[in-house]
Amino acid sequence: MPHDHRWYVIRTRSRHEARVHEIATAEDAVCFFPQYRVLRVYQHRKVHRWLPMFPGYVFLYGDLDALYRLDRGTHTVGFLMVEDQRRLHDELCQIDRAAQSEVPCEPHPELRHGVMVRVSSGPFQGMQGMVDARLRRPDRLILQVGILGQAAALEIDADLLEVLEPVEA
Fold this sequence. Notes:
169 residues; Alpha-Beta Plaits; four-stranded antiparallel β-sheet; 2 domains; alpha+beta; 12 strands
């Protein structure tokens, strides 16, 4: 990848995430748009739909020209500059890894409290996140995207988690 490429967070208009992703992909830009599958019932019909993991946001890896081309469109509201490129890249890699798995992964509010853990074995070995201590659910690993103040929840066996930080009283 060229040296001048960086991660940018594009803020989209309501329900325009897929269109921004489509336009970026058509322009050969590297775009990350995580989604999750949900079951909806409409008049006794069950329908599976794909919804954005982070409504209103699409992640672009490119140069400023690619960013400005997308930002000039009618589907975007603006963008966020990312200072900590390594952190966002690592967070997005974890979200992508979880979203590509067969394990249900869904949006979750960002946590302020909880215990930081690392997955010690299994298909998600090495992933780091937070256990939702408020719900006392040791089987839900929360993967956060700090710049957005949002997160995704992944159900995982509590026996596969090792604590990284001591629990605060």
